[in-house]
User: Fold this.
Amino acid sequence: MESIRQQKVGRLLQKEIGEIFNQGLVSISSGMMISVTLVRMSPDLGLAKIYLSIFPSQDHSEGIDKIKSSSSEIRYQLGKRVGKQLRHVPELHFYLDDSFDYAEKINNLLK
Assistant:
């Protein structure tokens, strides 16, 4: 069970990382739409598990690899944005959120 503080920090990181991707502050290949679907924080707020949804879905493995390789740059940009609100910028771990693909597959099976 996440504490209220974990939830607040998670929502803040979700908003700011989403803006970093939308504004193109990190050099990831263009043509991909990346949305942050969920952020889970560790109890000590030192680790953030970030779940991403990447469109188009056929390029998702390539996209998540590029994002993982540029996680230090993303963390730096994040630190510039939330440095006044958080004492420490958490370590970022990125995961692919395939829940939308799964829901689409279920809808196709039910038709």
